[in-house]
Specification:
InterPro entries: DUF4143 (IPR025420). With about 150 residues, this protein is α/β, with parallel strands linked by helices. The chain is built from four helices and eight strands; from the N terminus they run ββααβββαβββα. The N terminus is likely disordered.
């Protein structure tokens, strides 16, 4: 299923993810930690979808910017997730923030989240609040979207 809009599309996931992150690391499928983190997030989202069949997992791409995960529940965009290997808020690349903000203007999600290696906090960008949470905390303390 693909969603259409005037300027961009939200394609269903066509990225490559592996079901075993240890195997991915062993065969050097992922050379950087950020890709491995993104794969972990995807696997957790799949696990969540098993208990919440209405959860749809997409990504957003404008041709210039990309958001790693667009989460829809009941046809409504609930959350945008961006994954980055950053150990402090100062190390989060502006391209990650810019992509979230651009996508949020179009998709109007309830929540914007950046999953980091170890950075935690919140930042306000105009009327948009972005929550930064470490991967380990996100995996252990997943906040459901009322699913």
């Amino acid at each position: 299923m693909q969603l259409q809009s005037a300027s961009t599309r939200i394609p269903t996931l066509s990225k490559v993810y592996l079901c075993d992150t240890a195997l991915a690391k062993t065969v050097r499928f992922f050379e950087d930690k950020e890709k491995l983190m993104e794969n972990c997030v995807f696997l957790e989202l799949l696990r969540q979808r098993n208990t919440s069949p209405s959860l749809e997992i997409h990504y957003w791409n404008s041709g210039v910017n990309e958001v790693d995960f667009v989460l829809r529940v009941g046809g409504k965009v609930e959350e945008l997730l961006q994954v980055t290997y950053a150990d402090s808020l100062n190390n989060v690349h502006t391209r990650e923030i810019d992509a979230l903000l651009k996508a949020s203007r179009e998709l109007k999600p309830k929540k914007l989240t950046v999953i980091t290696w170890n950075a935690e906090g919140q930042k306000q960008f105009g009327d948009k609040k972005i929550v930064f949470t470490p991967l380990w905390k996100w995996l252990l303390g997943w906040q459901t979207l009322n699913r």
